[in-house]
Each structure stands twice: as C-alpha cells, then as structure tokens.
C-alpha cells in the first residue's frame, strides 16, 4: 500500500506544479490562450472554480489559488496520516 500512497503523492505533486504554472501564466499576456495554457486550463480550472465561488477577489488580487494549493497540501498530509494510522505505509 505504500506504493499506492507514493503514486498518489506523486500525482498530487504534479498537479500542484501544474496549478502553479497555470497561476503564473496569468502574469503573461496571451499565455493562457496558447495550447499549453488551454490544456492546463482544462486541468486546473475545475478545481480552482470551487474556491473562486467561495472566496471573492480582493481588488485585483485573486487569493483563491493560494487557498486551493493549501487545501490540496493539507489533504495530502491528512491522507498520509490516515495511511500511517491504518498501518498501510
């Protein structure tokens, strides 16, 4: 089961990197309209949209991606603790 947790951890790590890249793409005009930007948008926007509905932007600053990354990180820590408690890791 440790292999399963490691696989999940790797996938979440790649997803967090994709989120960070997608967030940084908003700083460059036209980057999200590129082919890579559209692919990342299809992957990242459904997850980010949940947080954008709850957390309104503060002026020109959208803090929902930061909260989304923190929630993902805390969820992984919780899953890790669950695997440890169950003796699966």
Secondary structure blueprint with pairings:
Blueprint: H1 2-25, H2 35-54, H3 64-85
Helix pairs in contact: 1-2, 1-3, 2-3
Q: Can you walk through the features of this model?
A:
The protein has 89 residues and is an all-alpha fold. Helix content is 74%, strand content 0%. It contains three helices and no strands.
Q: Low-confidence parts, pLDDT < 50 over ≥5 residues?
A: none
Mean pLDDT: 92
Biggest sheet details? none
Radius of gyration: 15 Å
**Approximately what portion of the residues adopt beta-strand conformation?**
under 5%
Structural category: mainly alpha
Shape by Cα distribution: flat
Task: List the keywords.
89 residues; mainly alpha; 3 helices; 74% helix; 0% strand
The gist of it:
The protein is mostly helical and 89 residues long.
